[in-house]
């Protein structure tokens, strides 16, 4: 697990998310068009090592403010899926996808960043920007619901890549399947098949997906 040092936005590897010294915060957000990657953060570290600049000062607004907030709240480390996963490494990517739910559940604090909600928004007003935020269609939610309820919620989510809609739910259901980028919506069918095999909850047969491809296995 790669984590950002909140004081300097430098990456460090930890074998597991359990017992991180100094604690870690996690960022839940909607990806923007241009996000700093693992390689970008590493390159920033090398660049700043030459002149003594703090890499955090040159990080994106999102990463910099996340680190500042986490440091203020007493966390020495932070995790953001845009830059804390080396997506050029199939091993690192697979491990992060499989352990994603653990990452969230073991974090000391989770911040939700809603870029499309103004700071003066009335959170309780019907039809408010908060209620319409894209963030509500993303991220990890509670696993306390039955399988059918979780699948119904998952069907309305949005992800950057179609496969991620299924992959990021593996931890939620306590299952594993190898990521196969390029398989598209077939990943969701594989997820359903794994749930049927491993989870003792017949409510999945009461769930109906939003597209024919998703309901094919259950009908």
TrEMBL record:
GO function terms (MF aspect): acyltransferase activity
This chain belongs to which protein, by name? Reducing polyketide synthase BOA6 (Polyketide synthase 6) (PKS6))
Q: What class of enzyme is it?
A: transferase
From which source organism is this entry? Ganoderma boninense
Q: Which residues form the DUF8212 domain?
A: 186-210
Which ranges does the record mark as transmembrane?
none
The EC code for this enzyme is: 2.3.1.-
User: What residues does the Heterokaryon incompatibility domain cover?
Assistant: 24-128
Q: State the UniProt keywords alphabetically.
A: Acyltransferase, Transferase
> Which Pfam family would be a valid example here?
HET
Would the keyword Transferase turn up in this protein's UniProt record? yes
PANTHER family per the UniProt record, alphabetical = HET DOMAIN-CONTAINING PROTEIN
Keyword Acyltransferase assigned: yes
